[in-house]
């Protein structure tokens, strides 16, 4: 399976106060996010982390990544230091990526865009950075942990919305035409 996440901010004390995450200590925060990640993501799954992964030494970052399930790709965020960016545990590291998933074109960046490639053709913008505080545009999803129950979100879940008219769940944004 394919998952997306962002803004885990492991080992970053600022998230407990600024983002008001529901953890009593930084250790509880980090262990809670690790448990949620590993309960959601299997060892063979792929995870795109859209930035602001962690603070710490190279050894600490490597140790943390080794504990997390899945093949991990990094989209660099504004708080990702050299130890994070250069870790050998990332399958890839870049500032921006475009993927086609389940017939949908995805534009990945740490930052939310006002407009993005193939937007008029149904492309989705997946981002982090805003910690669930921005009102999204159509086909724009904040995959950060603050907006997704403190765990990675499956790609298929990103394409399901509640119809305003019927209240029923329905797929959105197919790539036809």
Automatic annotation (TrEMBL):
Q: Which superkingdom does the taxonomy of this entry point to?
A: Bacteria
Q: Where is the Calcineurin-like phosphoesterase domain?
A: 6-131
* Record-linked SUPFAM superfamilies: Metallo-dependent phosphatases
Q: What family does the database annotate? A: Belongs to the metallophosphoesterase superfamily. YfcE family.
What is this protein's record name? Answer: Metallophosphoesterase
Q: Which organism is it from?
A: Pseudaminobacter soli
